[in-house]
## 1
Amino acid sequence: MSKPLIVITGASSGIGAAAAKLFSPAGHPLLLLARRVEKLEALALPNTLCRRVDVTDRAQLQAALAEAEARFGPADAIVNNAGVMLLGAMAQQDPDEWQRMLDVNVKGLLNGIHAVLAGMAARGRGTIINISSIAGRKTFPNHVAYCGTKFAVHAISENLREEVAGSGVRVITIAPGAVETELLGHTTDEAIKAGYQEWKQQMGGVLAADDVAEAIAYAYGQPQRVCVREIVLAATGQPA
């Protein structure tokens, strides 16, 4: 295969699945990771290894990467897309929901970075693409813990970029506004979910997962000497 391996976490739906469907026809072999492996397999993409992996489990992630690299060669990029959004008012929210977001959105991201970084640095090239959110740049009602995790993604990404710039590895942050994915469905507070849906309608619609995937592909497609450090995108009608 003429194109190198790309790893995508949280690839069973939404942005991850959309990115997979862009990179595969471009000729990239893929390692797709998610807990719902049947949805990965349903994408039916060629030269693709699908594995049931919880990104909070470092050993699972590293084992899947080793298997993919043995088959397809070294990973040239990882899209750290796995994430959960559990909105809630701080005084009422179950602390287990904070922990879940910290585990997936922060620890899972770090596990993805750690799995590929040493190899990329040794080869003198590679791209780490971290999917954050506008909620990693500004705050929103009922987003306290979620914003905390996404502000962490921004900080981790920028600090990492500075750390590895001299090694030829690029670090890119993609920060979408509201996107039509399954993410809101994770929230357990029905009133907050209803309010969020109303907000989306008021702005006249939100981004599609394909819109974000195109931004990912654009940033990755630049020459290796060019690092698009951050892309922030949202529906034109989204005011905040």
## 2
Amino acid sequence: MTHHIDPIGFIQSPYKEKFAVPRQPRLAPSATSRLKLVGEANSPEAVRGIEQFSHLWLLFLFDQNLEAGWRPTVRPPRLGGNERIGVFASRATFRPNGIGMSAVELKGVVQEGNQTYLELGSVDLVDNTPIIDIKPYIPYSDSIPDALGGFAEKEPDVLNVYLSIEAQKSLASHPQKTQIEAVIKEVLGQDPRPAYKKGKADAKEYAVNLFDLNVKFIVDSNSVTVTAIDRF
């Protein structure tokens, strides 16, 4: 049996490509976002009472990966990208039905003319990711303090991030300078490179698209240096 699912909205986030996205939503707290509701879901009635909840579950589609299919085993970054485990023992993006879920902070509901938005805290979603459902986060049932986290028991290590003089000059006149600098440091501090390069110096210059910027950087064994920042 098959079932057709239509998005109820689309995320508007600073992450313009998969390379930039943190592996969990709360790892880049400065990167706020919003959810634009569409179709019949675009109604104040559909979200009436939602402000009672501080956090929400977002169910979404890994739309950029759907055509690639999936395999029974994957190589999680937290295991260095070398050890295989079952796809259902992971949060891998390549899944049988391409469905993901994230717990996110709800900051408020905004009505702009006929358009309804949910203002959110940080997310781990690429800009324009389709959302297929929203459910309130219920602390007494959804939070399990003594739960085991398997291979992801601890938070990942974070690298120090420094902006070069050139990068600082490029960012100086940007109207969102303070937030953008914080997001750059939070995102790059997690080292978005392939898992097998973690903890290793690398002469290659990488680039990631955040907001309306292309951010170039290099990584040594314990820090990241932003070498240049260019507008799109």
## 3
Amino acid sequence: MPYVERVWRSRSRRGGSFLSMAEGNIELVVTRLPELLAVTLRGPVTRGTLVECPANGEWLAIRFRLGTYLPQIPTSALIDHQNMQLPVLPNGRFLFSGLSWDIPGYDDAESLVARMARAGVIARSHATDAAIEGDVDWMSRRSVQRHFRRVTGMTFSSHQQIQRARHAAALLVSGSSVLDATSGAGYFDQAHLTRAVRQLIGMTPARLSRERPQLSFSYKTTTS
């Protein structure tokens, strides 16, 4: 589906913490706790942080493909944990963009997105795709940067830095040495790797390699 990168779901039996890494995507998240039902719109994050996860919780999230945006809500208004809590109605629906929607389950999450697209609540930017794929001959560099920042809330350079740091983190927690991760993720030297990973992932490369903590993108999830 052109609007969705992934639909994921997760469950916690015990409380704990994990590293929530920097990322560029918008997500619609349904949270179910013993005394709470919430629907949250989350935006991009530019710094890694340690996040506490409550016990006995269930989450379902629609992770929108990069370049999907909300015409009525600037992505920059959601960035760095400026989450939007959407009103949940007594009939099991929620309000978003002046309309009432069924709270989705895993099997009908993409159907919800399709309805949102038809209603004009979400849209796609082909300029963002062109920037990522390097197909920018038909646009000036300045135009590409302007479109990318308007849609994603961050510069294209910031997006590239986040993707590189996430790749380095994946290498480190999978057993690669700091030296190999530096080379594998394309960093100039270990000092460059350390600065980027500490800021964007939330932990130094040496500690990632030693402790191999739970990362925000490495839960055992079911994807679409």
